[in-house]
Amino acid sequence: MIIVDITFLIFIIFHSIIMLIDEFYFHRKRGLTKWERIGHPLDTLSTLLCFFVIIFLPMTKINMIIFLFLAIISCALITKDEFVHAKYCSKIEHLLHAFLFICHPIMLIFIFVFWSAFSKSYFSFLLHVDLIFLKNIIIFQFVSINLFLLYQILYWNIIWKGRKYAEKISNKQ
Question: Which listed site, 20, 26, 81, 139, has its alpha carbon 20 to 30 Å from 117?
């Protein structure tokens, strides 16, 4: 079932490109408010928690419930900035956010289904899928997301020089 592998890989590449355009074009172009500088790393952390469950915990009923709870929280959490985005984002950036809102739960569904790459699974239909390939993609994502979280914290809260401007914007809300 190489189609499953390729579909997942294409999806991850698409999602990553959208995220990188949002971060390295739109965010740097307009700067981030204090709310976003704190909130975006929280979004990333909520995603990492879902990956953590998949990679490090066995697939049991209780861990499936934990994953589902974390995934729901993560999907809800990523929408928290929309009142700020409504005021400061361009239409194209809103469109990218809409794509990201669609991609986020799909990515979480993918990694849930591919949990079998890390643990005995309830999904017997994956017996013909290259689980080692999927496992490597998920681990690569996990490492990449950790690095992205580190970047978000360091760049936007320590290195970025436009903080004073963004704080003035934040205070006008």
Answer: 20
* Separation CA 17–CA 52 (nearest Å): 23
DSSP string, 58-105: ---HHHHHHHHHHHHHHHHHTTTTHHHHHHH--HHHHHHHHHHHHHHH
Which contacts (CB < 8 Å, 24+ apart) does range 101-104 have?
103/11, 103/14, 103/15, 103/18, 104/47, 104/74, 104/75, 104/78
Separation of CA 33 from chain center: 20
Check the CA dihedral 2-70-16-146 and report its sign: negative
CB 106 within 8 A of CB 11: yes
How far apart are the C-alpha atoms of 4 and 160, rounded to whole Å?
40
* pLDDT 10s digits, 70-108: 999 999 999 999 888 899 999 999 999 999 999 999 999
